[in-house]
What does this fold into?
Amino acid sequence: MNAVMGAASSDTDAGVSSKKRLMIVDDQISLTKIVSTIAESMGFAVTVVNDPTQALDVYLDLRPDILILDMVMPEKDGVDVLNEIMLTDITSRVILTSGFTESYARLAAGVAQFHRKEPVLLLKKPFRRDKLIAVLREALARL
It folds into this structure.
């Protein structure tokens, strides 16, 4: 994992440039450690941002292949982060996570549709390891 101003990522491997880049934006540090470990075992180069106010800057520097974004965070809501990122030339596949309600999930999907981007994938918390792996594989298949 690499750390930059509330962000962390793994680029110690020699072949990291050929790895798919995954960015995780979530204020729950313990959860991001678990997700990072699983994603790294799948071959991803992982960057973690625990401070949602840093998400856009890190996103623009990294240009990840896949973005996992928590929807409920302090200081900046996931919908706001998603909207900011969608205003860029986004090419990432987006996976939204949270203990969100159905209406909140529709709101986030509406943000993506408004910007005419690929549909987002949803991963409701709490989730199991096999579900995370399945959603990451689905996102990879859509690249």
Observations:
- The chain has one domain: 17-127.
